[in-house]
Amino acid sequence: MENDMALEVSWVRRLLEDVEKDYTGMVDSLLAENKQLEDLLSLMAHHLDNLASNYPGKELEGPDAAAAAGKITAQLSQRLEELQREALQAREAQQDRVSLQKRLCEEEMGSKQLQRRLEAMLQENGAAPFEESEIDDEMGRAALIAKVRGAEKARAQEARSRELAETRCALVERRCRDAVARLEAELAEARSQSAVTWPKDKPMDIQSDGPARSPLKEEVQAFTQQMEMERKVHDHRRSLLERYSLPDKVPAMPSQTRPVTETPRSVMITDDEDYGMEGYLERPVDGSYEKVFVDIRDGQFRVKSNKSSPSTLSESSLISLNGPACLTSRCARSFEERRGGHFDATRYGYALF
Questions:
Q1: What pLDDT, on the 0 to 100 scale, is given for residue 266?
Q2: Which run of H or of E encompasses 252?
Q3: Where do the record's region annotations for Disordered lie (predicted)?
Q4: Within 13 Å, how many C-alpha atoms sit on residue 82's CB side?
Q5: Residue 183 main-chain phi, psi, to 5 deg
Q6: Can you give the CATH number for the domain in which 301 is found?
Q7: Range of the domain at 220
């Protein structure tokens, strides 16, 4: 504390000496200016004497002499006004200089006061005391720049992860909507086909629950239940997205350091979510499972290896189904359907919540 007081006293003394030197210089300049003005006045007086003794209208009389005297007086008045303006401008410049010096001194005192407050705060926070001679401005500036860059990099990484999560949620929601729309379209097409192919003498009673239930009706009910399950999955994911909504994005994002195709995925998905987003089924083949897609059209139940492929792995009529599809006890995602007296096991991959 005593060292700080000694440094402060020495700094104040040095500041007072500088101010005294500045004011001494200002007084000297004012004295020099007064000296110049006195010389100028004496010169003007001498010039006036010369004009009074040798002016052109001295030998003239009457109106000519008055006109010559008026002309000389106007010239002298104009010259005096110019000299007065120059003196006024010099005085204003001197005043501006004095005010600027005063402001500079005030700013220096304010900077020193802020420096002392900073040192006191560092001492209160447990920082080691340091002397003014030990401060390295370049190292401090480099450390500050490194900290700022690190903070900007962390903020950009956080914004990138938020963007990835938001994009992932939007993709899941879009796939769920596409799956629901596809199932609704398939169900509407199956209903229209069943209305066309159903015999007129045997009207289909959807509301009856008698023992003689048609395979087509059971299939329609199975697909209706599947569509309801897809809708529940979509509603569940939508509620999760609304519950864990992300904050706004950063207005200015840095350029990516690598292509988007090389960016790793931040969230791992399970098999159930993958099945639900892709909308395919699986059936057992030689101890493993094969990806297949189901297509119901024109009263036919087709199993394809690809959605856009015209070829089918198996095909059967909806009327030939002897019973509804039922879950098996071997796998939670498998069901069996009876076609022509035998069972065909197919694994479906929609997420169950």
A1: 39
A2: none
A3: 194-214
A4: 7
A5: -65, -40
A6: 2.30.29.30
A7: 150-198+214-248+270-348
